Amino acid sequence: MSTIKKTVIKDFEGRKIREYLKEELGLSSRLIKGAAIDKRIFVNNKAVKMNYVLKENEEVLINLCKEESQNITPEPMDLDIVYEDEDIIVINKRPNMVVHPTKRYQSGTLANGLLYYFKETNQKCIVRLVSRLDMDTSGLIIVAKNQYAHMELSKDMSQNNIEKRYLSVVHGNLENMEGTIDLPIYRPEGEGVIGRVIDERGQRSITHYKVVKRLADRDVVECLLETGRTHQIRVHLKALGHPIYGDTLYGYEEDSEIIGRQALHAYGLDFKSPRTKKSLSLRAELPEDIKKLI
Questions:
Q1: Range of the domain at 232
Q2: Stated pTM of the model
Q3: Which family does it belong to (predicted)?
Q4: Under 8 Å CB-to-CB from 153, ≥6 apart: which residues?
Q5: Do 141 and 93 contact (CB within 8 A), yes or no?
Q6: Is 134 designated active site?
């Protein structure tokens, strides 16, 4: 069971439990309301209402698990689980896999596989994505198992406290071995438009890069995202004149004969556990199709 348990200190004696949950535990009003309705908030092992007045040294416990469902069909799937605890699961997503069902892809998505895994391991969880990857990008994805973990990690993501590292293989050799790309990315108007462009009307977008391996006609480039725009790395590397191999949207269509998708892999995540604040540093090995390029 995923729970948060804490002993009341003197500073909160005489305060209502609602205030304690918001101020001491940092829980959102929405999470508190849902837990209160479901009677998942306890003091000394007894369910309490939100007007309960606390005493020093009482034990407060909130059960983060609740009965939830998603309109997604569970499907058996071979998942590469890099890390798992009671709050999160981190998956090394294979290439050519959609993360969440869409009108076009109702089956075979990561969410389908995760729901099956949760069911088989008796975990009452739905899929709460903290990070996402394009269908053809492989690598690490964080999924929260409960509302609290999702809230905390989403906040960390918005405050740039989750470090996301990627490896890509690009056409040609970059002029500088390392640097920062600070160019705004804009989504052009129009129905069905997928690609993004560099345009002053867009959002500020920052990518730090470093060439980690140089070959005669290509570079292996590590990218560290400071912002997280759609297609950010792909658009920024194209702007430097060095599109990613296999990226037929921003590069060359003939690349599809060399590699069947963009050579982009989310290999590293550094962040803190939402509950314990323990530092986590997770890595995922390059998949075989990218290894063959280098």
A1: 164-266
A2: 0.81
A3: Belongs to the pseudouridine synthase RluA family.
A4: 88, 130, 142, 144, 162, 271, 274
A5: yes
A6: yes
Residue-wise pLDDT for 30-82, tens only, equals: 888 888 887 888 889 888 888 899 988 989 888 877 666 678 999 999 999 99
CATH number, domain containing residue 39: 3.10.290.10
Residue among 134, 219, 247, 255 flagged as catalytic: 134
What CATH number should be reported for the domain holding residue 251? 3.30.2350.10
Of residues 117, 124, 164, 163, the one with CA closest to residue 147: 124
CA distance 270 to 224: 11
Query: pLDDT tens digit string along 223-255?
Result: 999 998 989 999 999 999 999 999 999 998 888
- For the beta carbon of residue 272, count every other beta carbon within 10 angstroms: 15
Number of domains in the chain: 2
Final residue in a domain of this structure, among 63, 78, 106? 63
